[in-house]
Design a protein that fits this description.
Structural class: alpha/beta
Number of helices: 8
Mean pLDDT: 95
Number of strands: 7
Order of helices and strands: EHEHEHEHEHEHHHE
Shape: globular
CATH topology of the largest domain: Rossmann fold
Distance between the termini: 31 Å
Strand content: 5-15%
CATH superfamily of the largest domain: NAD(P)-binding Rossmann-like Domain
Largest sheet: 7 strands, parallel
Length: 260
């Protein structure tokens, strides 16, 4: 299916690995130029080289988006390197798991600093460029927002806030011609998920494949997701074919959450 994304410029945060990298690579394959960003300079360089090897166009900008001035500097880098911005994908951010009574104020502040406040600042800085382009914003949250659990109090709260913020932003987007949506992924096979599996393996003695299969059964899903699942949905939403989708929060988790 031709998605009509050729010639557009996208900024994807957290794009050095996992879901962010998969989204960036698919957007490039569909004809976009992409600004990659993250904290790991080496991983960003690897992603940029992989894209270039396939004939794609990508630049990279190392940024610590927790820092208040970093989002505006990132948008300036996009303006300098590409001269425009059509697509903003908010993907950066991870939060600490653990017992609520053991989590500190600093843990909570850190969880909101990257996955919420960085999104707010980046959307504000990028809005004029997106308005000029008639562009789109897509947030990648997490299904913990709809299925809060005792060991994920920070992440569940942050992801719920991400969805609420982008829903509110979508009303401004109606006025300014900017599409805004959110995807809440379920459990996706990334480096982060495999690190979580290592703690389970230490208790069970199973190998990684067996532990992931045991986890799949616990979640009652047909399979664990892969980054390409989320990337495919993102590319469709961000394309002209998905333009009528606006102000939506899509839970993409293989049926883990059966009803809201």
């Amino acid at each position: 299916m031709e998605l009509g994304l050729a010639g557009k410029v996208a900024l994807v945060t957290g794009s050095s690995r996992g879901i962010g990298r998969a989204i960036a690579e698919l957007l490039v394959a569909e004809g976009c130029a992409v600004m990659l960003t993250g904290r790991d300079e080496g991983a960003l360089a690897d992603t940029q080289r992989a894209i270039a090897a396939k004939g794609g166009k990508a630049k990279s900008h190392v940024a610590e988006l927790r820092e208040p001035k970093a989002p505006a500097a990132l948008v300036e880098a996009v303006k300098r390197d590409f001269g425009r911005l059509d697509i903003l994908v908010h993907n950066a951010g991870a939060t600490k798991r653990g017992d609520f009574l053991s989590l500190s104020d600093e843990d909570w502040a850190d969880g909101f600093a990257l996955k919420f406040f960085a999104h707010v600042r980046l959307a504000r800085a990028a809005w004029p460029l997106l308005k000029t382009a008639g562009g789109a914003v897509l947030a990648i949250g997490g299904n913990g927002a709809a299925k809060p659990t005792a060991d994920f109090t920070i992440g569940s709260s942050v992801n719920a806030a991400v969805a609420a913020f982008h829903k509110a932003l979508s009303d401004i987007g109606k006025r300014d011609g900017i599409q805004v949506n959110t995807i809440h992924p379920g459990h996706v096979d990334t480096d982060r998920m495999r690190r979580q599996m290592e703690a389970r393996i230490a208790k069970s003695g199973r190998d990684m494949a067996a532990e992931i299969e045991a986890y799949r059964r616990e979640l009652n899903v047909p399979r664990i997701g892969v980054p390409g699942d989320i990337a495919a949905m993102a590319a469709f939403i961000l394309s002209p074919r998905g333009r009528w989708l606006h102000g939506a929060t899509i839970i993409m988790d293989g049926g883990e959450i059966e009803m809201l």
